Structures are given as C-alpha cells and as structure tokens.
TrEMBL record:
Compositionally skewed regions (Low complexity) per UniProt: 8-25
Gene3D superfamilies per UniProt: MetI-like
Name of a matching Pfam family: BPD_transp_1
Residue ranges occupied by any ABC transmembrane type-1 domain in the UniProt entry: 91-301
InterPro entries (UniProt xref): ABC_transporter_permease, MetI-like, MetI-like_sf
Protein name, entry field: Sugar ABC transporter permease
Subcellular location: Cell membrane
Transmembrane spans: 35-62, 91-116, 128-148, 168-187, 237-258, 278-302
Alphabetized UniProt keyword annotations: Cell membrane, Membrane, Transmembrane, Transmembrane helix, Transport
Length: 318
C-alpha cells in the first residue's frame, strides 16, 4: 500500500511587485460643528444687534432728552407720530424713493450683469471701471455729487441751457430726482455683480438646445436667462427695498431734508428728532418702525415670490 504524502501549500499572499490595496475609507459620518463654534458670532450679534434693538424698543415708550433721566410716557410718542404731518410725508417720500430705486436699478442691473457675464473684448476693463462706485462709501459718493451739482460752481452752473437756474436742490421734484440718480449710480454696480454671477451659472446646454431649435438672442434672453435669474432678482429686490427704507447719509449730505421738508424721509426724520431736537423717545419710535417695516416687506416679498420654496438652480426654466 502506497502512502501518498501531500506537501502543505504556502498561504496565498501578495505577489511580488503587485500594487497594494488601500484600506477602505471610513463610513463614519462627520457630525456638524457644535454650538461652541457659533458662540463668538452669536455673542457679537447679541451685543451689537439684539441688545441695542431692545433698548430702542424700550426707549420708544420713554421721554428722554439725553441728559435727564428717562420718563415713561406709554404710547405718547407713537400717538404724536401718527398725527405728525411731517412723519406722514416722510413715509410717502421713503416709499417713493424706494420704488424709484427698484424701478431704475433692476433693469439696468440685469442688462449690465448679463453683458458682464459674457466674453466680449474689453469686457473686463469696462467692468472694472463701472464697478468703481461700488468701492466708495455712500458719504464719499454724496460729497462728490454735491460738489458736481453745486448751483454756483458745479456742472449746472456751466450748462444753464439744460439745468435752468442750476439749483437742482431748490425744488422737490428735482431734488428727489437727484437722490434717485445718485443712489442708482452708486448701488447699480452691486446688483450688477449679483446678476453677473447668476448669469454665469446658467447651464450652457440650455442655450445650445435653444440654438438648435432656432431661438435667437432675444428669445434666449427672455425665455432662458430671465427665468434663471429669478432667485437672484428676488434677492436683489429685497436688498434694494431694505436699503431704500433705511437710507440716510445720501439725504443728509445732498439735501438735508430740504427744501423745507420736501425730501425728509423717515430715516432722516429720525435723525432730526433724536440728534437735533433731542427727542430720543420719538426718534427711537421711528427707528423701531423702520426696522419692523423693512422686516415685514422682506418677508412679504419672500412669501409672495415663492423664494422660500425654490430648490433647484433651474427653478425658473419655462
């Protein structure tokens, strides 16, 4: 009987020169950062936003001249504002300037933003020049245009055939026109930047499909570009509205609420009551009303536009 011996085979191992397999990545998920990471920002926002807002709300029910102790007067400040003709006029002027800002800046911003998103010759140079007003503060812009539109030494004095007596700040209509023009000149580049980024994000395949279907440049603009800019348009209009309701330094430097009270908007009237008449209670009431109005308008625009329900980048494609 022959006994067959079987030699033990060596265990299989990696061949010499074969690439080594990398270990499988860990499937454990990284948790969200804790509240500690947001604590510095939360503390900063509380100290410099929430606390002052609460103090203004409390002060709106007080009578205080900035020196003597505050005295609680209930709703007297609010009652006087409701019957104040200057306050009622300031609300109308604020809404008018806000509407003019939206009407003038929105189409200009869209056209310039879509143009700046292209690849035309000298586009970059022209865009940089056009964005210069965005780098200047509202105070610097107001001082610049106050000098340029000075009735004695500015442009109107040299072009009486166009500006008449040259005093653009002497009548309500021309003064409001100057305020609307200066705001448009300064803030349109900011909103142009928003639309430029949004136009660059439009998928090129949409335009390619439109060209195959025979759609021209104008049809592509109205049926592809504009619907794709819907979310950016809502964001821009909210910023314009809030900015229009709270603008201050432009009126302070250019017109100082004049002639008379013809350009006294609500924010300037707040400054006039608080820092000129030393009626900080009434000034606080106006400030609180502006905060509430800006918040309500923003929420209404978001709600009516459906912005809070939008999910995809191709939301507005029709």
């Amino acid at each position: 009987m022959t006994t067959q011996t079987t030699s033990a085979r060596p265990a299989a191992g990696p061949r010499e020169g074969a690439p080594r397999r990398m270990p499988a990545p860990s499937t454990s998920k990284v948790g969200r950062p804790g509240f500690v990471w947001a604590l510095p920002a939360a503390v900063f926002f509380t100290l410099f936003a929430i606390v002052p807002l609460i103090m203004v709300a409390v002060l709106s029910f007080m009578s205080w001249d900035g020196i003597s102790p505050p005295e609680f007067v209930g709703t007297d400040n609010w009652s006087r504002l409701a019957d104040d003709p200057v306050m009622l006029q300031s609300v109308w002027l604020t809404l008018l300037l806000t509407a003019l800002g939206v009407v003038l800046q929105t189409p200009l911003s869209i056209l310039l933003g879509v143009w700046a998103a292209g690849y035309q010759r000298n586009r970059a140079v022209l865009s940089v020049v056009y964005f210069v007003p965005l780098l200047l503060s509202a105070t610097a812009v107001s001082v610049l245009w106050r000098a340029l539109l000075d009735p004695n030494f500015g442009i109107p004095a040299s072009a009486t055939w166009l500006f008449g007596d040259g005093n653009l700040f002497g009548e309500q209509a021309t003064a409001i026109g100057v305020l609307a023009f200066v705001s448009t000149w300064q803030f349109t580049p900011f909103h142009t930047l928003i639309y430029q980024g949004a136009a660059r994000a439009v998928p090129p395949v949409l335009y390619q499909a439109a060209e195959i279907d025979g759609a021209g440049r104008y049809r592509q603009f109205f049926h592809i570009t504009l619907p794709q800019l819907r979310t950016s348009m809502i964001t821009s209009m909210i910023l314009m509205t809030v900015g229009g309701l709270t603008t201050f330094e432009t009126v302070l430097i250019l017109t100082q609420g004049g002639p008379g009270t013809d350009t006294t908007i609500s924010a300037y009237y707040m400054y006039d009551k608080a820092f000129k008449s030393f009626d900080y209670g009434t000034g606080s009431a106006i400030a609180l009303a502006l905060v509430v109005a800006a918040t309500v308008v923003s929420l209404v625009v978001v709600r009516l536009s459906g912005y809070d329900k939008m999910r995809g980048s191709t939301e507005g494609v029709s």
